[in-house]
Each structure stands twice: as structure tokens, then as C-alpha cells.
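Quick illustration for those who missed Monday's session on complexes.
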Amino acid sequence: MSQPPTLSAAQIPSERLLLRTTLHEADREALIELSTDPEVRAHLGGPQPRHEVEQRLDTRLATGATTSPGSYVIADNTTDQVIGTLMLARRATDRPGHVTEDGEELELGYVLRRSAWGAGFAFEAATAALRAAAHELPDQPVLIVTQTANKRSLKLAARLGFRPVSTFEEFDAEQTLCTAPLSTFRT
Ligand SMILES: CC(C)(COP(=O)(O)OP(=O)(O)OC[C@H]1O[C@@H](n2cnc3c(N)ncnc32)[C@H](O)[C@@H]1OP(=O)(O)O)[C@@H](O)C(=O)NCCC(=O)NCCS
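Prediction with coenzyme A bound:
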């Protein structure tokens, strides 16, 4: 069965940022940093080996675009420099953490380079993506699942208007499941 849709826009602009699906060679070092920085990966399973990240990137850069639906790089809209990534994709039914019987809810994920934390960029990018999704898709619950120890991520979820509803174990860590109706972002 085909997956229910997610965002289709190739670009989503906001005040300081541009979310884009296109990938350029100039994005390489920033994308490597996102997957190998121990601080950025502290609640995401730890840093990944650089050679594995480079191999994966070679394939993705060759296609010139992010590969999975709802997947964006977050770029500074004046320099086009990548500061992070954002995903609004379907949460697989066989994973724990759902708020509907059918599962496959939209799930929001975000990762910023360490140097970009503390400036409201994740909030701005998430708001722009959720607003675009709310105009494109019918109302439905959106999830954010984050390690309970990830205080910055939980704070961001709360600022976006997501409500914590349960906790569960995955990847040997306690996860907090937060949710918000997509329609609340249709402003
Ligand atoms: C989770 C993560 C994206 C949060 O980044 P962040 O920069 O703290 O998030 P926000 O965009 O909400 O920014 C909030 C901070 O910017 C400050 N800020 C500065 N200018 C701002 C502005 N114009 N608007 C809003 N906030 C602003 C806020 O005061 C707040 O500061 P504080 O952290 O000192 O309280 C980041 O920590 C990260 O990438 N972590 C690693 C990846 C990860 O764990 N992702 C979660 C997986 S779901």
C-alpha cells in the first residue's frame, strides 16, 4: 500500500531560512558535521563514522536532492550555507510511539549544527514546514519523539505547541512522545 502523503514543496522560505530539497557539493562538510559531531548526536545514538557518512553522502550528492519525501536541508537564506536538516515523514507502524490506531502519523525531526543552536532557527524552520504542511494536507496529529534526556528538543516541542502524551523505551533510552494537531499551524 502506498504511504499517506507528506509535504511536496521543493522549497519552503521563512524570514531567515530556506528549506530546500536540492543538495549541492558545497553542502558536503556541513552535512558530514551533522552526522559526526558528538554533541549534535548526543541523543541520536552517538556520532557516526566519517567514512560511512561520506559514502552515503556521495550517493545523495550524486542525485542532487534529498532522497526521502518530506526531507529538507535548512539553509541560511542569505549565504545558502547549510545549518541543519528537517524531516516531516511518516512514523513506521512497526515502531513504538503512536497516537492513532493505524500509526503512520506525520513525525517531525530536526537537527542543527552546534554553531546554530540558541538563535531560534529550529523553531523558525519547524514553524515554516508545519505551516506549509497544514495548508497542503488534511488535519491530522503530528508527532515529535525525542529522548526524555534531550531537554533542548523537548523545550522546542513545547514552544511549537506540542504536548507530551506518553513515554516509552526505544534505542535503550526513554523517549517522550509529543503531539499537536496539524491544523493549529494553519495561520
Ligand atoms: C534540538 C535542537 C534543534 C534545538 O535547537 P535550539 O537552537 O535550542 O532551538 P530553537 O530554534 O527553539 O532556539 C531556541 C533558543 O534560541 C533563542 N533565540 C534567539 N533568537 C531567537 C529568535 N529570534 N526566535 C526564537 N528563539 C530565539 C531562544 O531564546 C532559545 O535560547 P535558549 O536555548 O538559551 O533557551 C538542537 O539542540 C539540536 O540540533 N540538537 C541535536 C539534534 C537533536 O537532538 N534533535 C532532536 C531530534 S527529534
